Amino acid sequence: YPRKCNSGSARPFAQLFRVMDIAHEAVIDDISSTKRDMYYKDVPLFGTQRVVDNLVDDLAATFEVERSDLNVRATSKGLVCGSSLSIHLRSGEVLQPNDSDGTLIPVGEDIQSFSLVRAISWVLIVEKDAVFQTLYLRSPRSSSPLILSQGKGYPDLATRHLVKTLSDCLQDVPILALVDADAYGLDILSVYKYGSRSLRHEVGKLAAARMEWMGVKGSELNELGVHADHLLPFTKQDEKMALTMLRRPDLPQEWRKELSRMLFTRRKAEIEVLSNI
Question: Which positions are annotated as active-site residues?
């Protein structure tokens, strides 16, 4: 940073200084703001939410600080289910997730500490909210599971922070991920396990290297009895993402084989395909 600009327009600089102005005001007045709030303060200038997202991440990386140091808070969308975990907030409140419904995961700066009511047997991170709801209704209570859902799209910081904390503190507990058998599912898994490229300066605080890929794996679908008719066609967007991931030098060999298989068969599968077993 600063990034290159080929258009010759002054707008990128105006956008940058506007974000800095909003962040500076938030720090001086000690008022927290979200990226969404910043975007709506000057929609005509920013144009899209992505502009604000990228600028905030770039500024944090440039100044070698966390977004919370700029008084920019993440918006929570992840859910956690499991009565074994207690979340202690800085406000003094204690969140106690239950076994029958999802509890919104608070942002990291609001959390004081975690504690366990009883031992956790395993932690499962699920890509999709609909699958999350099915699992927490059907999971055996005797196994004391802890199930997390990231909501739609890629995981938010609050969910990643919780997964990282559980991975570090519960060394004997398996940390498992259930994602779609496509390139985007593997990319989401990569964000949890290795961190995102946009927040490389926070990898040590967010990457849960112990996470294991539970599924869904295309190479196992035939053995599980999933018929080819239940698979989805591989799109151009899927192909582009798969090829992008295959260019990563540190990609695990198993992931590389699964991506190559998708490109060869031109088929992918969503988690919901397992309901056909």
Answer: 40
